[in-house]
Specification:
mainly alpha
Length: 174
């Protein structure tokens, strides 16, 4: 969706077009703003090329489309915590309700900007070949679900949905 792409672009621009002054802990406009803006646009364009299938409705059911990526995440959840997977399925808690936003924004809406940048550093540094970044993101999403496992196993549908939509609990990823 447009909003997901806008969030991705905003995070890139904010990170690349601003720099922190470590002595005063303030963020100031970079002196070479135009160059940094161009770099942010180039990175965003490259990222959109890689994520294109997530945003193309005709490709939703492909392995690289949004449904395919959510399905891959659920396969991982099944592999690593089948009891939790069954519990969510028994509650009819569709992964679309929580993971769609995670995948389309690369978790940018779930974390603070500094934490998002740290996550993206790890994600973009992944060099395991084609599909490695998708796998990294899927594993991270599954880890977020497993992190609230105990709460999910005792929760009713509404509470479980709230837990997952507010996942992760707002704390630093340090």
């Amino acid at each position: 969706s447009f909003l997901a792409m806008a969030k991705l672009a905003a995070c890139m621009c904010e990170e690349m077009c601003c720099e922190s002054d470590s002595t005063t802990n303030h963020t100031t406009r970079a002196t070479s703003w135009e160059r940094r803006e161009a770099d942010a646009f180039a990175c965003f364009s490259s990222l959109m090329g890689e994520l294109r299938d997530v945003f193309v409705e005709d490709l939703d059911d492909s392995s690289t489309g949004i449904k395919g990526r959510m399905a891959a995440m659920i396969v991982l959840l099944e592999r690593h915590d089948s009891a939790l997977r069954r519990h969510l399925q028994d509650m009819h808690l569709d992964p679309t309700f929580y993971s769609l936003r995670w995948i389309t924004t690369l978790l940018a809406r779930e974390f603070t900007l500094p934490d998002t940048c740290r996550l993206w550093d790890a994600l973009f540094a992944e060099k395991g070949g084609e599909g490695a970044r998708d796998a990294w993101l899927s594993y991270f999403c599954v880890a977020m679900v497993i992190d609230v496992r105990e709460e999910l196993l005792v929760a009713e549908f509404g509470e479980a949905l709230n837990l997952l939509q507010a996942c992760p609990p707002m704390r630093s990823i340090d």
